[in-house]
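Notebook entry, structure prediction.
Reason for the run: the old model in the group folder had no record of what sequence produced it. Starting over properly, with the input documented here first.
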Amino acid sequence: MTRRDPTPAYGDVTGAAPRRRRVVFDHDGAPDDLLSLLLLTRYDHVDLRGVAVTPADCLLEPALSATRKILDLVGRDVPTAAGVLPGRNPFPLAWRIDALRVDALPVLNQKDHDTTRADRPAAHEQLATWLMRAPAPVTVLATGPLTNLARCLDDHPRIESRIEEVVFMGGALDVTGNVNQPGHDGTAEWNVFWDPGAVRRVFDAAVPITMFPLDVTDRVPVTPDLARAFGRHYGHPVSDLAGSLLALTFGTLETTSLPYCCWDSLTTSYLAEPGICTFETVHCDVITRGESQGRVVRRSGGRAVRCARTVDSGRFHRHLLTMLTPGPTPVPTPGGRQASPARRADVGPAGERGG
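New structure, fully documented this time:
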């Protein structure tokens, strides 16, 4: 096993323009994961080479189906793969069924879809193929658990050199976690808690890691103003889908006492607009056993990870609307006021939780 590189090289991303990237996306099928997929398809500088679905915060089949329908909606022919590896600590079923609702959305069912495609190799095997066949190193964007990547590193050690960067939504450094389960002390975030050993394995790899913990992602809750802003573009499939995915998150606060946040879509926006967040390099480790399992902790001499620390939430909201609507509209600010119209890319018609 390749041991951890304690000082991976991280560039300064403050104010940086996006650069071309080859990306493999591993998500776990929640509404914000699927919003992240939609965002990725709008980034001209991203070469999306494959999408894996981890059966963590979702039911696998509807999440995989919704993934394929989204790619079809925007006219993208991108290979997909199903995760088959279990996590140690399952997500609540009440959260996982959101994938059923997304898969049934009218905007994704304007025509019949092929649901009889031959199965590809399991996601952890397909991930190795995508990485090895890419002409240059690839960014692995993970908005769900790191289980597929960890197994891939175990089974195919050579792929380590094919990874340019791991961008991961997970962890809770200096804030309370969002796991409320019997026998747990509440210090962990769900993507890490689902499979703590996988995070430890990826930490042990000599690859740069950029992590978006709850410390920053909890600062961008889904608000009524944000969701309703997409209604001003009703009739455009991409903005219709984006608004629908955000609307599906309503009720989370009432049922869990915690707001639904843009955990994954904020993480994804880093690939296009890294200046939305500020970062610091943190030496950390993950607890893999006991009542704190899944907790990411600061530790002197631990793995060096670049962590997002602050976020410009107004700029992030503008980013979503710029990428996912067809024209300028007033942009909601965190306080509910309307900011000046923002210029957005044209998007015409086309065919407590954390992550």
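Summary: The domain at 21-339 is CATH 3.90.245.10 (Inosine-uridine Nucleoside N-ribohydrolase; Chain A).
The old model has been moved to the deprecated folder.
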